[in-house]
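User: I'm putting together notes for a lab meeting next week and I want to include a structural view of one of the chains we've been expressing. I don't have a solved structure, so I'd like a prediction I can at least talk through. The sequence is below, exactly as it appears in our construct file.
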Amino acid sequence: MDNEQVRAFCQALPHFAESEAWGHHLCFWVGDRDIGGRMFAVIDIEGTGDGVLSFHCGPERFHELCEIEGVISAPYSARNFWVLVQRWNALRPRQIEEELRLAHELIYAKLPKRTKTILAMPEKERKQLIHDKRDRARKKLLAAQRATKKS
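Assistant: Thanks for the context. Below is the predicted structure for the 151-residue chain, given as structure tokens.
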């Protein structure tokens, strides 16, 4: 398994969104973060960190997964039951897919009702809503920058 295979698998999950963060990480979301979506997995694009894949696993699976050689508690996220896979061969490809599917389901279950309602909208309406929210945020930021310059 590798970054592209994980990405292709995750793209097939419902309500999938992705973003880049921290310079060289690709974050996978259940729903766009602009509408209240939440992250369920992260891959290290460049492979320069401590591991190749992090994901949410829930309290039931956390300790079981951490007993596997090459899987450790994720730095900064362990208290939220995230694990870090240090190398691709620590888990079998089918096992990685199953864990990612489970992570997606766990995060979806925790989403607020409002976010789930937006995700249930037809795709065209949902995309327009996301675009409108981003546009309002951009306008608010520009107004704040102008106000700072005037003072």
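A couple of points you could mention at the meeting. Residues 121-151 form one domain. The mean pLDDT is 89.

User: Perfect, that's what I needed.
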